[in-house]
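Extended Data, panel c. Modelled sequence:
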Amino acid sequence: MSTKTCEYCMREFLTKNLQRHYGSCKKKDVTLIEKQLEEQREYYEKQIQTHKDQLEEQREKFEKEIESLKEQLTEFKTQLFEIAKQPKTTNNVTNNNTTQNQTHTNNRNTNIINQLAIYDLNKDQITQLAYQHYNLETFHGGPDEIAKLAARFLLTDPVTQKPKVTCTDISRKNFKYVDEEQEVQVDPGFQKTHDLLKEPLSKANIQVYVNDLNNDDKYRDQWKKNDEFISDQSRFSDKLIKWMV
């Protein structure tokens, strides 16, 4: 009887059995996953280039606006000089409000600095931690367990147990962190941190799926569900906030 070779694992099968083999060929799954990741990489590279082009256009636009403002400034120099010579009046109410607002902002920043560990995240460190803690329980737990893992192990200092990032405005999804200069920085929409977490978690998710010899269609569906969640910045940050509180 005629035989054919599986192009993924290079094993030979009777022609009539080859299609059935494809349904359980682990090498096929890995190949398709790698192909999908490569397509995603190419897509994001194109997106990055598009954003770079847009930023360049914005830069040129702003430079033109700056030149225009400089010209206006030159025209108003005489008027501004005359205004500057006039006696100055102090508005105590305005000054008091400004001082109070500045004090409130400083106090909030101090609280954030005291609550957070230094934001020293890098992709290699996150990849190592993801491989270490992402297990079958996380895999089957789906979005909730993945978000919990990220909050407890990837975004928490192992020594002080302080979080490295916090959400200061849930409705607007404004996240903040403390840089190495002890300055409070903003991560709008969780974009910066999500970009660091996405690839390591996606790879850990694949690793658990591929390494389990008992995986089947149910496992494959769970892998896809997890991968979609990991890639979705909005859903990911929503779940993560639950474990940050």
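The CA atoms of residues 190 and 237 lie 7 Å apart. This feature is highlighted in the accompanying rendering.
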